Amino acid sequence: MAADRHTTTTAPAPAPPSAPATSPAPATVPGSATGPATASAAAQGVAAGRVCLGEPQLWAAAAGSGCAVAVAHPNIALIKYWGKRDEEWVLPAADSLSLTLDVFPTTTGVRLAPQAAGDRVLLGGQEATGPAQARVADFLHLVRELAGRREPAVVDSRNTVPTGAGLASSASGFAALAVAAAAAYGLAADPAALSRLARRGSGSACRSLFGGFAQWHAALDAGGGAAADRVSLAEPVPAAAGLEVALVIVVVNAGPKAVSSRAAMRRTVATSPLYRPWVASSVQDLTQMRAALAAGDLNAVGEITERNALGMHATMLAARPAVRYLAPASLTALDAVLALRERGLAAYATMDAGPNVKVLCAAGQASQVAAALREAVPQASVVVARPGPGARLVAGDGR
Ligand code: DP6
Fold this sequence. Notes:
Order of helices and strands: HHHEEEEEEEEHEHHEHEEHHHHEEHEE
Structural class: alpha+beta
Region (Disordered): 1-37
Largest sheet: 6 strands, mixed
Number of domains: 2
Keywords: ATP-binding, Lipid biosynthesis, Lipid metabolism, Lyase, Nucleotide-binding
CATH architecture of the largest domain: 2-Layer Sandwich
Helix content: 25-40%
Family: Belongs to the diphosphomevalonate decarboxylase family.
Domain Mvd1 C-terminal: 248-380
Domain Diphosphomevalonate decarboxylase-like N-terminal: 72-220
Bound molecules: ligand DP6
CATH topology of the largest domain: Ribosomal Protein S5, domain 2
C-alpha cells in the first residue's frame, strides 16, 4: 500500500485515541460519498482480499472473522497541503483543496489475526518490514484503540500507481486502509470520522474519502491536539455543474523520491524563509479557488492551481538544504503547458513531492492536451484522469 517512503524519518509513535472508543458492534461504514463501487474495483478488492478471503468461494466462511476490503483513489491538491502545525495529530498549517481521480486506485484488505504475534503487512504482494511496516502497524494500533480491540491483523494492499513518486499513493493507501481497518475492527464511522482517521495515517489521505473536489479544514480556530483533531477533516466541495475537468498526468519518473514528503515539509517549515508568506498566500488562494469552482471558471481554477503549486515548490527550493523535486523533464512539461495556453487551450500545471507534472484542463480538450505532452516529453507516460469516487468498502463483514 501506500506508505510513503521514509528516507529520513522514523514512523510516528502510536498516538492516543482521537475519538471515544466504540463497542465492537458491526461497523457502519458507508462505502462512498459519491457513488457505487465499479465492478472492476470490486473485483480488484476481492483479488486483493486474498489474505482476507482466501479464495472467493471462502468468502462465506470468512464472514464473522473480521475482514474487509476497501478501494480508494488518489487525490491531487489544487491548493496544497505543505507543512504541519502539529506533527503528532497530523494537523496542517492551512486548509487545502483537491480533486480525487478515477485512476490509480489502491485496494486494501484487512483481516484480523487473533493468533498472530503482531501485525503483518503486505505491500504489492511483498512482506513489508522496517518503517513501511511500522507506519501501517502504528495506524492499526490507533484503530484498535478507537475500537477497543487488541487483535493483530494482516494487511494486504496493492497500489496501481508507483509508490512514493509524488503520485499521491499515500493518500489512496491510507484512505483505503482507514476504511478497511475500521470495518474489520467494527469501528462505527461515517465518512467524516473516516476522513479524520485517514488523516492520522497521511494528511492528504483525509481528502480521498470523498469524490471530486474536497477541502481539508485545518481547524486553526480549534488550536491543536485533540480539540483540533475532532474538526480537522475533509468535506466535499461543490463546483458549478458545467465545470468538466480532466487531469493529464505526465509521469516523467515513476521511481521513489529521495526525500519523503513528510521529511521535506518538515524541513521547509523549519528552515524556509518563504514558507510563512506562501501559507498566507495559500489562504487567499483557497478563498479564490472556492469562488472559481462555484462560478465554473476553469481559467481561474487553473491559474490559482498553478501559482499555488509553484509557490509551494519555491518554499522548498528556499529550504536549507534545498528540496528540489522538479527534474529537467518536469520543466519541459511546464514549457509545453505554457505553449498550450499560447495556443488558446486552458491548461494549467501542478506538481507534488516528485518530478511528475499534472495538467488541469477541460475534459473535452484532454486528449489534445495529452497528445501535446506526449510529443513534448516522449520519455514520459501520459495518463488522462477524470474526477473519481470517494473511498469505499467493497467487501467485508464489518465485524
Ligand atoms: C505535496 O499527505 O504525503 O502531495 O501527512 O506527512 O503523510 P504526510 O504528507 P502527505 O503530503 C502530501 C503533500 C503534497 C500536497 C498535497 O497533497 O496537498
